[in-house]
Structures are given as C-alpha cells and as structure tokens.
Amino acid sequence: MGRRHRADQGGGPDNDARRPIRGVLLVGFGLVLVLWLASGVDLVRRMTDVQNTAADVSARFNRREQLLGAVRLEVQRGSIFVRDALLDVPGTADYYRGELGQAEASTNRALEQYDALIDSPDERRTFDQLRTEVREYWQALLPVASWDTGQRATRARDVLRDAIIPRRRTVISISNRILSLNRDAYEEQQAQVAGIYAAMRRRVWQTSVAVLALGIAVALFAIRYAGRLEGRIQRQRLRERENARDLQRLSAKLVHAQEEERRSIARELHDEIGQALTAIKVELVMVERAIKPEARTRNVFGEARAITDHALQTVRDLSQLLHPPLLDDMGLPATLEWYLRGFAGRTGITTDLVQQGVEERLAAEIEVSLYRIAQEALTNVARHAGARSCRVYLQRLPQTVLLTVEDDGKGFDVRQATASQSRQGMGLLGIQERAAGFGGTFRLESTPGKGTRLTVEVPALPPSHDDEKAASEVEQVPGSAGQHGVQ
What we know:
Number of strands: 5
Low-confidence stretches: 1-17, 465-487
Helix content: over 70%
CATH superfamily of the largest domain: Aspartate receptor, ligand-binding domain
Mean pLDDT: 75
Number of domains: 2
Largest sheet: 5 strands, mixed
Distance between the termini: 28 Å
Shape: rod-shaped
C-alpha cells in the first residue's frame, strides 16, 4: 500500500510540470515563428526599398542623359540653321530666326529640367558653366539669321571661325564633362545599392543564424525535457509493475487462503457436523428400539430420521462443493465428471465433458484453479444463459492446459456488456484473477442468440516463486463479454 501511495503522489508533479513546459515550448516556438516572420517582412521591405532606389538611380541617370543629349542636339541644329541661313537666298531670314528661336527654347527647357536633377556641388559648377556658354552661344547665333547679303559675304567666315564653332565645341566639351560626372555619380550610386544588397544579405544571414540558434535551443530543451519525462514514465511503469506483482501475489495468497478456508470448513462439516448428525441418527434408532413406540410415535421417529438423513446429505453435499476430496484423490477430470452430473441433476441442463491428453495429474494448484473456474462458469450458465445444454472441454497441450465451457444459450453483445466495468461481476473477475495468477489467458466470445464460449489457457506447470513475474494481462477478445452475463 505504501508503494502504491508513493506512485500516486509521483503522478502529481508530472501533471503540474506539463503546464509550464507547454507554455515554455509555445513561447519558444512562437518566438522562432515571430522572428522568421519579422525577418521575412523586413527582407521584403528592404528588397522593395533597394529595388526602388535602384530604379530611381537608373531613371535619374537616363533622364540626365536624355536632357544633355537634347541640349547637344539643339546646339548642333542651331549651327546647321546658321549655316543654311548663310547659304540661302535673301528673304528667308524670318524662317531661320523662327527655327533658331525654337531650338533656343528647347535648349532652355532641357537645361531647366536638368537643373532640378543636380545633387552634387561639382556637377552644379559645371552645369552653371554650361548654361553660360549655351546662353552666349545663342546670343552669337541669333543675329546671323538677320544679316543681309553684304554682311553674309564679309562677316560670315569670321563669325563662324571665331564665335560659333568655338562656342559649340565648348558647349559639347562641358556637356561631356557633365556626362562624365553623371556616370561617376551613377556608378557611385550603383556601388551604394550593391552595398545595401550586401548589408541586407548579412542581415538575412544574421537573422537566420539567430533564429536557427533559438530553434536549436528550444529543440534541445524539448529533447532534454522529453528525456526527463521519459525517465519519469519509465520509473512510473516500474512502480506500476511492482504494484501489479504485489497485487497478484496478494491475490494468489487470498485465493490460497480461500481454498484453505473452504478445505477447513468442508472438513469441519464432514467431521464434526456430519459425525454429529450420524450420531443423532444412531441414537434415534437405538431409542426407537429401546422404547418400542406405538405406530404414531414410530412415525415421529421416522420423520426425525428422515430429517436427519436429509441434513446429513446436505452437509455432505456442502462439504463436497466447498472442497471435493475427489479432487485430491482422483484428479481434475474425475472431479469435473462428478460435478457435471450433480449440476445436470440440479439445473436440468444437459452436460458433457470432453477431455484429451489429461491422463497424468496436474499440479494441485492448477487443478484447483481450473475446477473453480469451471464451477463459476457453470454457475453463470445456470443463472444467465438460459441454455438447454452445456459442454466442457479439457485439453492438455504441450506446455499449457486448455479449459473451454460453451453453451447454447441466448448469448449477448460482448462489447456492450463490457463497456461498463460496473456490470462485470465478481465471478468473471475471479476467473480472470485465477487465470492471470498463473500467467494464463482468458477469452470470452458470445453472439446474441448463438450461445457463449469461455476459454481459459494456463501453463501446465505453475510458475516457481523464485522466477515469479507479473502475469500477462487477461486476453479479452474485442466484441466478447462475460459468458454468463457479467454478473
């Protein structure tokens, strides 16, 4: 009882420990999940920012290239218009002035748009030079379209050589420097984007390593706790097995004590009460002979002898039922035949014993247990089966003894009958305990309307006390129940 009490107490901390460990595991794995999600969201956000930055850098670079190209193109067109104006016939000045005005306006729009894209001091200084040169270039170019024939002939070469061509070269040279600055800035920005990508990769690796380390820590903690819990379970199982062995030893002792008590009561009934009744019967005969009573009195003596004979027979039957001496003298088969004859006489149920290979005597405790099992099973048949006939099989196998009791009664649904443990009677439990006490098996099969079969198989030799182990659990076939109703 002390061991059992300690086992019960040992279960409490395990149950209490499960609650905090579940919380710890949930928090740990939840933290891992949150970190993974946070790192994923941060990665997506950073990727979006980097892509937007890269797209913006590329767009700004292309836009600058386009605007500088537009400036150079208009400058080239202006020089072409001037050349055509000098070579064309008089009267076309208005046309060329209009074209040059449009070219100048386009150049000024491109310069204004480029001005909004400048983001470095060097580029600002160079751009200011370009704007000055472009303005002076157009100031030198526009009056040429209004020259008359004489001015064209005398001044054209000098203006082209000294003003227009040098200024155009200067504009192109400055625009080339701006393009170079723009490309340098683009490459620098591309390098910054590459650095952002590298930093993002490092951050992803760091986050992954942190999450992995946390996951490993949580896993190791769970493994360690699972190992400790498994150790507790193993110890609990050992305690339960020890308790089961203790209970089986106690059950065996109780059964043995019960048999000894029955043997003692049977002996007392036979020796004391039986002899006393026999003595009463003899005394009645002697008194009757001594007093030679009349006919009426002789009837009284006759009734007294009959009552004494009935009481004596009842005592003998009770003694036989409690512990038949035939079991000690003749063995199990003969005792079963004797019991079946009495059972058939008392209940009116036709009985039959089929035996095979039981010529040799079994161990005394095996014979007693099988006899009690058969006795309990037949009692259940009489009480609950509603059978007309019953057959008992007793078979000796190489290592075991097989006892089967089957009837042609009403049967029942075994699963439904065994669903509630409270319906299982002491008789069936006694059969199970006796079978389990020898490491045997117990099987019960029944179908409504088709009778019931109870089968018990126990070792032919009882287990030694030195090698005594926990008996195997009684085998209960699914869908089967107490033969005789589970009282």
